[in-house]
């Protein structure tokens, strides 16, 4: 039986799950619930590459724990249609993954990231100074995107005049990242956009590292270049740090505010309980973790709950679904509740590939929300329900625009 036959057979039992389709883009949470309840493994129908998706927390944990069966090494086909730079580490298995992770992880530990607090305080203050009482702002570009870019710019020692370039490139990632295996037909325009972004980012990294060396400016990228011998690996790791660190954090900050704005009683509660900011940020990550899925590749043939999985199949593990699995969150899993203590979620993944930037992302969101609550008495959506616009990339939870006004 061919992959297409298997897909067609399953499709007769379960209504199609299409993360790039309009239904999912408009209501992913209903779709995740349906899929968690319908099956443990779902073979997609009609995709260019064979893809199988998983939705339940326990299955994701099992898959994440067994890298020998569920490899992170990307298929050449996936890289061809999607993003090649930055496929290092996130797209590797031990021992290569371990080698690089051991170099990079210490750079993102709480001690080193905590030292960034004054710089992040400064960025937040400046951005809020400009935004408060300025009338309508776009919280995505003017605050979330700007803060995440400034933060990555700071740790990477990137001069301020180059921040717009970094933002431009990461916006392309936000729009197109991670969709490649799910395409139903080739998308030359999308591939061209990704190639163009890479073609700008990689030479920028080369010349930036040369400048850092000359000027002896502290930078995580220089630390990477000093500790990793292979030039290709230096490029990949630097691109990963820049690519993974901007739009993910920006989306968290924007989507978290959106959730709070839909529930004025929760916003009021947070304003009255500013010491609960950490808890609020955690609930934002649980409900709106920006990377909705991680990608794996089946390293051998196997059967999973009656579904035949073939070596080389692309595997989508839906973090955003696992974070709302009632087996883990029995009490109103689909409801954002700022008073909840979200102890267990998949927003940053789990296992050997767990997000290396989680301390940094939490620090940014915590600092922004604390200051926002302290400095404003009121926040308002300036175009009602149309204030928020999504990129329509079902694979990442990416905001395109969020029009609000902030009042002192
Ligand atoms: C809210 C913000 C963020 C979210 C939701 C997020 C989410 C994730 C997830 C789910 C993974 C796991 C990927 C996998 O299992 O294959 C991951 C990995 C990673 N993240 Fe993040 N991330 C965020 C922010 C950041 C930041 C700020 C950085 C760095 C500056 C970063 C750097 C990385 C890196 C390097 C990896 C790969 C780790 C590895 O393969 O060992 N992330 N992230």
TrEMBL record:
Top-level taxon in the UniProt lineage: Bacteria
One Pfam family matching this protein: p450
Coiled coil: none
Signal peptide (UniProt feature, chain positions): none
PROSITE patterns on file: CYTOCHROME_P450
Keyword entries, A-Z: Heme, Iron, Metal-binding, Monooxygenase, Oxidoreductase
GO molecular function: heme binding; iron ion binding; monooxygenase activity; oxidoreductase activity, acting on paired donors, with incorporation or reduction of molecular oxygen
Similarity remark: Belongs to the cytochrome P450 family.
Protein name (database record): Cytochrome P450
Organism field: Parasphingorhabdus halotolerans
């Amino acid at each position: 039986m061919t992959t297409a036959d298997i897909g067609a057979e399953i499709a007769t039992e379960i209504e199609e799950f299409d993360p790039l389709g309009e239904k999912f883009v408009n209501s992913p949470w209903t779709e995740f619930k349906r899929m968690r309840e319908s099956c443990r493994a779902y073979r997609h129908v009609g995709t260019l590459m064979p893809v199988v998706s998983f939705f339940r927390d326990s299955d994701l944990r099992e898959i994440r724990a067994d890298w020998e069966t569920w490899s992170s090494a990307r298929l050449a086909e996936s890289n061809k249609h999607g993003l090649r730079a930055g496929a290092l580490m996130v797209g590797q298995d031990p021992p290569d993954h371990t080698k690089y992770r051991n170099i990079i992880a210490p750079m993102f530990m709480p001690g080193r990231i905590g030292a960034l607090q004054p710089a992040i305080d400064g960025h937040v203050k400046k951005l809020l100074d400009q935004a408060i009482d300025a009338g309508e702002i776009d919280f995505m570009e003017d605050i979330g995107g700007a803060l995440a870019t400034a933060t990555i710019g700071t740790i990477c020692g990137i001069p301020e005049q180059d921040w717009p370039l970094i933002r431009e490139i990461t916006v392309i990632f936000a729009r197109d990242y991670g969709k490649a295996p799910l395409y139903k037909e080739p998308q030359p325009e999308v591939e061209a956009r990704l190639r163009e972004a890479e073609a700008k980012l990689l030479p920028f990294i080369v010349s930036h590292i040369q400048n850092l060396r000359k000027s002896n400016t502290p930078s995580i990228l220089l630390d990477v270049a000093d500790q990793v011998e292979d030039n290709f690996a230096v490029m990949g790791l630097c691109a990963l740090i820049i690519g993974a660190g901007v739009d993910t954090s920006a989306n968290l900050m924007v989507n978290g505010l959106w959730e709070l704005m839909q529930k004025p009683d929760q916003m009021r509660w947070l304003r009255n309980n500013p010491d609960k900011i950490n808890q609020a940020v955690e609930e934002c990550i649980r409900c709106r973790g920006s990377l909705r899925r991680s990608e794996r590749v089946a390293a051998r043939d196997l059967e999973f709950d009656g579904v035949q999985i073939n070596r080389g199949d692309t595997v989508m593990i839906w973090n955003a679904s696992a974070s709302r699995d009632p087996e883990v969150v029995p009490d109103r899993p689909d409801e954002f509740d700022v008073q909840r203590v979200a102890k267990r979620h998949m927003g940053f993944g789990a296992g050997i590939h767990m997000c290396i930037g989680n301390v940094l992302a939490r620090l940014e969101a915590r600092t922004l929300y604390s200051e926002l609550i302290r400095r404003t008495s009121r926040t308002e959506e300036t175009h009602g329900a149309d204030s928020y616009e999504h990129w329509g990339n079902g694979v990442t939870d990416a905001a395109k625009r969020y029009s609000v006004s902030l009042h002192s």
